[in-house]
Amino acid sequence: MTAKNEGHRERLRQKFIAHGLEKFTDEEVVELLLTFGTPRRDCKQMARQMQMMARFGSFRGVFEAGEGELTEIPGVGPSNAFGIKFIHQVTRKLLREKMLGRPFLQSSEETLDYLNHSMKSLKHEVFQVIYLNSGNEIINEETLAVGTATEVPVSPRQIVERMVKAGAVSVVLAHNHPGGGFEPSAEDVGFTKETAFVCGMMGLRLAEHLIIAPGGHYSFAVEGHIADYEREFQKFYAKLAK
């Protein structure tokens, strides 16, 4: 490695020490990350001339690419791919731990960050559940089901069973729309309402249902639907009690 390359690399390190990532371009972030796996090569060429950013579309695309896709790029070996995937998983773990044990209403941004990070780029549908205790604190989360590009198999009964097992009294649901917008389908609406009613019958509560998509997200609670379902359930339950 030439003195010129080493000097450039050191300037990037000092820039990070002084400013964090605030003044970095996406290409520079990838370039500096690649130095950990290729200490004797000019990673500026790897990041730009080998078109990692162009290949995967964005900085986020680089981190969410598969290991096989990364190593298809000439000069990006297993060590580089490992480093990129490791950082991605560490970030996911950090986001998960930031939301666990905190009241959901006070950590809704952290929860959304975690769900966006873990679901937004997936090519298939997944269904995740976040469990809340009586203090509305997040006690656990899990992927309940993995589906295809267009659907994921899950039922309200499964959700209630998992809530009881987790010791939860309310729940936040989330699933993704890999290839489409974030507006709910008729099936999404029907499923959410049914789940709210089944939870109500068991003395439990559906607190939220989020749809995560590449272009944004949809919140059943923010749009007022969860409150509507709860009012409908109360009327339904009152009739049963007569």
Distance between the termini: 83 Å
CATH first level of the largest domain = Alpha Beta
| Superfamily (CATH H level) name of the largest domain | Cytidine Deaminase, domain 2
Radius of gyration: 22 Å
Strand proportion, as a percent range, falls in: 5-15%
What is the typical, i.e. mean, pLDDT? Answer: 81
Number of domains: 2
> What overall form do the CA principal axes indicate?
elongated
For the largest beta-sheet, the strand count, sense and barrel status come to: 5 strands, mixed
Percent helix: 40-55%
**If helices are DSSP runs of H or I spanning 4 or more residues, what is the number of helices?**
11
Unreliable spans: none
Describe the protein's topology.
Layout: H1 3-19, H2 26-34, H3 43-49, H4 52-56, H5 59-64, H6 67-71, H7 78-99, H8 108-119, E1 126-132, E2 138-146, H9 156-166, E3 170-176, H10 186-201, E4 205-213, E5 216-219, H11 225-241
Parallel strand pairs: 3-4
Antiparallel strand pairs: 1-2, 1-3, 4-5
Helix pairs in contact: 2-3, 7-8, 9-10, 10-11
